Structure prediction request, 157 residues.
Amino acid sequence: MLAGFSRHGLFDLDLICKGDLEVDSHHTVEDCGIVLGEAIRKAVADKRAIKRYGSAVIPMDDALILCAVDLSGRPYFSYDAKFSADKIGNMSSEMVHEFFYAVSYSALMNLHIKQLSGANNHHIAESSFKAFGKALDMATMYEPRLNDSVWSTKGLL
Prediction:
């Protein structure tokens, strides 16, 4: 899933994680989300001259996922997707929500992911990660018309 995020978002990502998988995947997945969120927050730092907002609608066979990002500095997370199976491969399907929640709050971003259609659990999860990559890529793009300011009427984020 992270390979799809990094490839479709054009992000260089190397992640090594040792967790307590003998218990379950919760802490491992959550910690990976926290670390990725912190890396995003540090990478955009003062948010000067970036687009701030990004969105993507990604189809994957039967699944269609919408993702919208605002690098506002205010964390909020909304995830509206339904999984019909308890597991996707070896990972609990509820960990998809937990991962994105951890990313959004540690990155201090507003993140919405919504399932528009789909029944295949793998396709729903994978298109969520790809849509997030595309939306975040858009939000972090340089915007020269901002003249090195932030995209805010208040002058700061």
In short: The beta strands are 53-60, 63-70, 76-80, 87-88, 91-92, 110-117.
